[in-house]
Amino acid sequence: MRVTILDHPLVSHKVTVLRDERTSSPQFRALVDELVTLLAYEATRSIRVEPVTVRTPVAEARGVGISRPRPLVVPVLRAGLGMLEGMTRLIPTAEVGFLGMARNEQTLDIVTYAERLPDDLTGRQVYVLDPMLATGGTLIEAIRFLRQRGADHITCVCILAAPEGIDALEEGVADLPDVDLVLAARDERLNEKAYIVPGLGDAGDRLYGVVD
Ligand code: URA
């Protein structure tokens, strides 16, 4: 698995404001959107393109277009939804699928409660959006699910990750080639409740408010 951590002062600045507990939900959503657009730039570095020719007012120009089948963007509900606009802004022709996964807070097991994806992902590049890579359980499940459907290149886009989650993910997908991880920051550790420290709290709650 290739891990890329964005090293840019604007990214660090936006992550700092995201972390701040005084940042309101509307501000938080706007910042996630901006950060994901920056992450998407890096995450799509190996997006497949094919040669195309266009006519400028002056002459013919050779360029590239995004290859078919179209890339698929998959936000992991609920918090991944806050990352969707930022990603599709950069690849507006991508298709979008949804995976609903949640962690059972007692057992920490991952439960898939919703899925809306094409049955056949053969030859697809897939971008999985999940802001917080904590234990790694959700992303391992998501990657295995997508791979079973035929996805051949999977890039996970996260905002924060715990070192424990990165290690677990590396181990959990060690047998799978072509998995990339793009992050805005790698944090210190997980706490006993599997929250990222210092982190930013519950990303879903900060985006959308607390739902019991
Ligand atoms: N999910 C979150 O939203 N925050 C964490 O710190 C860990 C998992």
Structure, described:
One of its GO terms (cellular component) is cytoplasm. It holds the Pfam family UPRTase. Belongs to the UPRTase family. It is a single chain. The chain is α/β, with parallel strands linked by helices and 212 residues long. The protein has one domain: Rossmann fold (3-Layer(aba) Sandwich). The protein has six helices and 15 strands. It has helices at 9-19, 25-43, 84-90, 137-148, 163-172, 203-208, and strands at residues 2-5, 49-55, 60-66, 72-77, 95-96, 98-103, 110-116, 125-129, 132-133, 153-157, 160-161, 179-183, 185-186, 189-190, 196-197. Strands 1, 4, 5, 6, 7, 8, 10 and 12 form an eight-stranded mixed beta sheet that branches. Strands 9-11-13 form a three-stranded parallel beta sheet. The chain has a two-stranded antiparallel sheet with strand order 2-3. Strand 6 (98-103) and strand 7 form a beta hairpin. Helix 1 runs antiparallel to helix 2 and helix 2 (25-43) runs parallel beside helix 3. The longest helix is centred in the N-terminal third of the chain and has 19 residues, at 25-43. The radius of gyration is 18 Å and the shape is globular. It starts with a strand and ends with a helix. The structure holds uracil. Uracil (URA) is lined by residues 79, 132, 134, 195-196, 199, 202-204.
